[in-house]
Write a structure and sequence with these properties.
mainly alpha; Recoverin, domain 1; two-stranded antiparallel ribbon; 6 helices; 2 strands; CALM/Myosin/TropC-like
Length: 119
Amino acid sequence: MDDLADCREVFAYFDSKGDERISVQQVGDVLRALGQNPTEAEIHRCIGSFDREARLSFEDFVPIFQSVSKNREKHTVEEFVEGLSHFDKEGNGMINVAELRHLLTTLGMIDLIFWCVKK
């Protein structure tokens, strides 16, 4: 199944009124159900032009999904590095291997552990 077909299927699932629309407040949930991980700021930026009570059509939603998908890798790396900086107790740009392993395992990123070990 391609991204657009997945998008349509998930969008339809969140259409609680059967009017082929979702509420603007559901945008973040729909994006997350599609495997995206947008920040609240990113969601607000995407829906800022809509009224709080608006109901979005699939055609309204697709550009939002595409924007978030396009920015996914960039934001993921930046957010990952920022998140790891909280574990840098000495402020030298490094964290303890055991803490990193625990963190990545907890987040379900086991593949990343093996990549890090190889480096």
